[in-house]
Amino acid sequence: MPAEHNYDHERALWDTYAESTRGAVTDAEAVFRWTQYGDHGPGTELLGEPDSVLEIGCGTGRALAYLAQQGVKATGVDLSPVMVERTTERWGPLGVEFVCAEVVAHLESDPTTYDAIYSIFGAAWFADPARLFPLVAQRLNRGGVFVFSQPPAIPGAYGPQGMYKGGFAGPAMFTYRYSYTPEVWEDFLSDAGLHGAHVHVLAAPEPGHIGTLIGRAERR
Ligand SMILES: C[S@@+](CC[C@H](N)C(=O)[O-])C[C@H]1O[C@@H](n2cnc3c(N)ncnc32)[C@H](O)[C@@H]1O
Predict the structure, then answer these.
(1) Residue 40 burial (CB count, 10 A)
(2) 33 C-alpha to center of ligand 1: Å?
(3) Tens place of pLDDT per residue across the chain (220 aa)
C-alpha cells in the first residue's frame, strides 16, 4: 500500500517544528554539512562546482546561505510557511530565494533546472522517491548531480514509515519518512534515469552511534 500523504497535516506539523526551532534560524550560522555531527564527513565537493543549486526541504536554510556566500545561485523549497518566512528574512539579503511549496508539486510545475539538487535530512527523506527522483532528474542540467543525506534505515524497517504527531490521542495527524537499504536507494536513482548511483552509510565519529546515509548520482 502506498503512503497517503495529507499535505495540510504535514504542513501544520512542519510549522510546529519551525516554531520549535525558531532560534535555529534566527541565530543560525551559514554552514554546510551533510551529517548530524560537526566537522564530520564530506563537504560541498559532493556537489561538484555548481553555478546553481536547489535544496529540497531546506529547513533553516543555513546550507544555502553558505553556498550563496561562495557565489552560487541558491534556491530552497520548503513545505512550511513559517520556516520560509523566517529563512527569507534571515538569508534573503544574501540573495537566497526561498519557495514555499510541497517538493513534488513544485518540481512538477516549475521548469527551472539546476547544476545540483540536494537534500540534507530534507525532502528526500519525506517524499516518495518513486515520485520525487524522476522529477529531480528532469530538473538537473546535463552533468548535474543529486545528493542526499539522512539517517540510515532501522534494520528491517523499510518503505514509508508513518509517524503520528505528539502522542496517540487527538486529531490523527501524521507524516512519513522513507527508509531503504543503500542498494534499494541506488535502484530508485537508476530507475529515475540518473547515472553512477552510489549510496552508502558513513559511520558516526563514535562507534555504535547513528551513521549517515549519503546518496549521489548524476545526470548525463
Ligand atoms: C529536518 S528539516 C531540514 C533540515 C535542514 N537541512 C536544516 O538544516 O534545517 C526538514 C524540512 O523538510 C521540509 N519538508 C518536509 N516534507 C517536505 C515536502 N514534501 N516538500 C517540501 N519540504 C518538505 C520541512 O518543512 C522541514 O523544514
Answers:
(1) 14
(2) 15
(3) 789 999 999 999 999 989 988 777 778 889 999 999 999 999 999 999 999 999 999 999 999 999 999 999 999 999 999 999 999 999 999 999 999 999 999 999 999 999 999 999 999 999 999 999 999 999 999 999 999 999 999 999 999 999 988 778 888 889 999 999 999 999 999 999 999 999 999 999 999 999 999 999 999 9
Neighbours of 89 (CB within 10 A): 12
- DSSP result, 71-107: T-EEEEEES-HHHHHHHHHHHGGGT-EEEES-HHHHH
Is the CB–ligand 1 distance for residue 148 below 6 Å?
Answer: no
The protein residue whose alpha carbon is closest to atom 2 in ligand 1 is: 59
CB distance 62 to 28 below 8 Å: yes
Domains of the chain: 7-21+49-180 (3.40.50.150)
Q: Which helix (H) or strand (E) holds 216?
A: strand 212-218
Kindly state if the Cβ of 115 falls inside 6 Å of ligand 1.
Answer: no
Classify residue 147 by burial, with Cβ atoms within 10 Å: 0-12, 13-18, 19+.
buried
